[in-house]
TrEMBL record:
Start and end residues of each FecR protein domain: 71-125
InterPro entries the UniProt entry points to: FecR
Highest taxon of the lineage: Bacteria
Name under which the protein is recorded: Anti-sigma 24 factor
Record bears the keyword Signal: yes
Any Pfam family matching the protein: FecR
Presence of keyword Signal: yes
Entry keywords, A to Z: Signal
Lineage: Bacteria, Pseudomonadati, Pseudomonadota, Alphaproteobacteria, Hyphomicrobiales
Signal peptide: 1-22
């Protein structure tokens, strides 16, 4: 059953990324060590998704730039250059638990059934519960937050080096 679910996730990612590439100025590549699917966009946006992860690009604007991406499981490593275009419009990662809005940033989002974890390597990221987008926290370099279904306030923490290393190794970093 697990193999079928992973295969379905890979197929969903391939279909979503292919349709995104047709509507935007993005191309998809595959990396095998570690196994990743990578979406490179003309404006410099790069989304690296674990092979078993699911990613659905969120509609391009009139200029063909992605507005965001919806992540259903596993992890994604996001690189957004500090360009005028990205700075003006921003970019959002949507998960079942959280919304992460960014500009000029390098960060990772890890999604499980129980929670969404966001870690910032460079730049600043605003994170809010998906059902309470006006109550956000801002993460800086080295900081992370775990968002689950509880109603507790989001707590920004400096992540221990071992947790950072464990997440970033999944992307070959």
């Amino acid at each position: 059953m697990r193999t079928a679910a992973r295969l379905a996730a890979v197929v969903a990612l391939t279909v979503a990324a292919s349709s995104a590439g047709a509507q935007t100025r993005c191309t998809e590549t595959t990396r095998f060590d570690p196994p990743l699917r990578i979406l490179h966009c003309a404006d410099g946006l790069t989304l690296e998704v674990e092979r078993a992860g699911s990613l659905r690009p969120v509609g391009p604007d009139g200029d063909g730039h992605l507005k965001g991406a919806e992540i259903g499981g596993n992890a994604v490593f996001v690189t957004i250059p500090a360009s005028r275009r990205v700075r003006r419009d921003g970019f959002q990662i949507l998960t079942p638990h959280a919304v992460a809005s960014v500009r000029g940033t390098v960060y990772a989002v890890d999604v499980t059934r129980a929670r969404t974890s966001v870690f910032v390597e460079q730049g600043r990221v605003d994170v809010a519960r998906r059902d309470a987008p006006l109550i956000a926290v801002t993460l800086g370099p080295g900081e992370g937050v775990d968002v689950d279904e509880s109603r507790d306030a989001l707590e920004v923490r400096r992540w221990p080096q071992e947790r950072v290393r464990s997440l970033l190794e999944r992307f070959g970093r």
